[in-house]
Protein: Glycosyl transferase
Organism: Domibacillus epiphyticus
Amino acid sequence: MQPNLNPMNPQPRKNKRRYLSVKKKFWASHLFAFSWMALSIYITLPWLSDLSHILSFPVAFIIIAGIAYIPGYMNAFLVASLSLDRQQPFVDEFPRDSITLLIAAHNEESSIKETLSYVKEQDYNGRINVILINNCSTDQTVKRALEAKEEFGLNLAILHEDKPGKFHALNRGLKEVTTDYLITLDADTLLHPSAIRYLVARMKSSPSDVCAVAGSVLVKNSRDNLWTKIQEWDYFLGIASIKRLQGLYQGTLVAQGAYSLYKTESIQKVNGWPDAIGEDIVLTWRLLEKGWKVYFEPLAVAFTEAPNTLKHFIRQRSRWARGMIEGLAQIKPWQQPQIYTKYLTGMNFVMPYLDLTYTLGWIPGLILALFGYYWIVGAMTLFVLPLTFLSFGLLYLFQTKFVFKPLKLKVRKNLTGFLLFILFYQMIMSPVSVYGYIQELFKFKRRWK
């Protein structure tokens, strides 16, 4: 998606439909999801019977549940929830609160000046204090930042943190924050001109127990190669749909470090960012554990640099998988005080099982199907596709109508990337996630990037 430097002021969306409480949406979506899963089990009984003769009933059920029943339930829950989701209008679209922007940087000389130029273009009416924390850089990151300070007239302070690790850098910056709100921004992430305004506006329009708002992060380098073209759809449809689902139930599970807003006091009460490879995941879960809520604002758009090689993609996504395991190890779902966050964090217990089943069951089954053996992958596996296309279709319509159109962004023509995303992306994602689980199990060395 192409970054746009034109600040916008779209009219608040009118909610013409009858309002349903979050609780009613939650249970109505579950009713639909369980009904769909029951129907899929009934239809696939012959498939289960045939596979049981080959592998035994328990093994056959474990495989089919992992590649069809549970994914079907999750997709159905997602579709129903997205259908019922209605974003509340802003109370004030032009807040003036002073905020602090924390940017942790390690060898970012190629991107930091451009990132700061987009900060300069913000249409936010309040004061923006920028704190750049240089974390063991060996290049010209600091020099480029000082050039940007001078050229753009930014309120920029530069700190130095000698302990390697993003959490060390962010905690160093936290000590200098004097504003009620802070925003974390990756050093290679570009902000839409209205991004900060919408992020703060969502926080100011939310109940007092909301402690963080995650922004919407999209891919800025989708034209690099075929690999980034595929990831463009993951951010635009996959990640965004999960964020909307979690935001609806007041428990966005990752206020991502790339671009999110937090109440400074809340971060201080949980002692800052934790010593974790997924520091933003564990931090968010600690905030939720305190009984606070985390929202998501789709209009607060930022553009990040997606990995443009398979090697860097594996490194990034395995790190995300490790972060999820860290979160589950430190904060158990049953420790969450709200039913929605119990459910949302609890679903992460299922993810390793699904990834293992997909890696060790579906992929070998697909290979067998190519040779005419439809024991695992066959006509019945196509039963999950309608909901997949429906969920992505709903989100595509939402993104284009309520996000891209008001912000005057355009969805690039990327049919090849879309088809590869739908058909093959999970074949890479699941094995990479399994690799991340193994890394965390055996405590492999951490990497920031």
